Amino acid sequence: MDGRRYSYLAVALALGLSGCIPNQNKDTSLLAPPALPAQRASESAESTSFNPFASAPKREPNVELSMALLCEQSAEKFKDSPEQRFRQLDKARKMYQEILAYDAKNLKAFRGLARVYVSQRDFTRANATMQKASEFYPKNGQIYADWAVVFSKQNDFNGSIQKLLKAHEIDPENQEFMKALGVSLVCAGQVDQGIDMFARARGRAAAQYFVACLYYRTNQPDAARRHLQLALETNPNFADARSLMVELDRGRAAPANPSANVNLQFVSEEESR
């Protein structure tokens, strides 16, 4: 009998300790959750940020840059369809701006965005873009060469010359900079200086031929013929110069849009490396 009494007592104690027997004096409030460690708490706060890149690893924008460039190239195919051209350029603009939003010093994105603005003839924003790029890359000659294009497209060749002189100062052996500076000097009316600079990059015959082409496109056949003769005196086998001389002898008219090929052009990413 005593054995059974002890068994009942043991069972009752076990049930009481396990919480199955109600206890009027027991505190039944919920326990507070354990505090997050400092590192995990900050991670939790970051997850609520509206910036999608706040907690993401640094992105490599090469794919996005390629997509934006494809949109630019596609826009050139829609010259006869302004609406389609606008859409493609705007896609490229947004992609370049998105890249700069998380990679504020991306040189290719700066150059691409400036090209888009020039294509949209938004020269104010193109100029501001190159200004910002030059602040990040004050010793990058290509930035100033691109900036010169912005001025050239507005027929401000004096402004273009100033930027190209800076590019040439940074990289005095760069032939693309010499050529562009020669073009701008000629277009600004400084023909002899322009020929000298162009000749340093492409040779004397090529320089005279370029000036001849410029005069031909601007409907000045006598001046064009004079420089073609100088080109052929330097290189009698210069096929392009001979062909243009034939055009002049036939009295063929200059292209309908003579200024189209006079301004500077942006150097491609591959050429600028």
Description:
The chain is mainly alpha-helical and 273 residues long. The chain has a domain at 60-137: Alpha Horseshoe (Serine Threonine Protein Phosphatase 5, Tetratricopeptide repeat). Helix content is 66%, strand content 0%. Helix 5 runs antiparallel to helix 6, helix 9 packs antiparallel against helix 10 (191-202) and helix 12 (221-234) runs antiparallel to helix 13. The N and C termini lie far apart (101 Å). The model is unreliable at 3-55 and 256-261 (pLDDT under 50).
Number of helices, where a helix is a run of at least 4 consecutive DSSP H or I residues: 13
Number of strands: 0
Largest sheet: none
- The secondary-structure element order is HHHHHHHHHHHHH
- CATH level-two architecture of the domain at 60-137: Alpha Horseshoe
Helix/strand class: mainly alpha
What is the CATH topology assignment of the domain at 60-137?
A: Serine Threonine Protein Phosphatase 5, Tetratricopeptide repeat
What is the strand content? under 5%
What descriptive keywords fit this protein?
single chain; 273 residues; mainly alpha; Serine Threonine Protein Phosphatase 5, Tetratricopeptide repeat; 13 helices; 0% strand
List strands and helices in order, with pairings.
Blueprint: H1 2-18, H2 38-46, H3 62-76, H4 82-102, H5 107-119, H6 123-136, H7 141-152, H8 157-170, H9 175-187, H10 191-202, H11 204-217, H12 221-234, H13 239-249
Helix pairs in contact: 3-4, 3-5, 4-5, 5-6, 6-7, 7-8, 8-9, 9-10, 9-11, 10-11, 11-12, 12-13
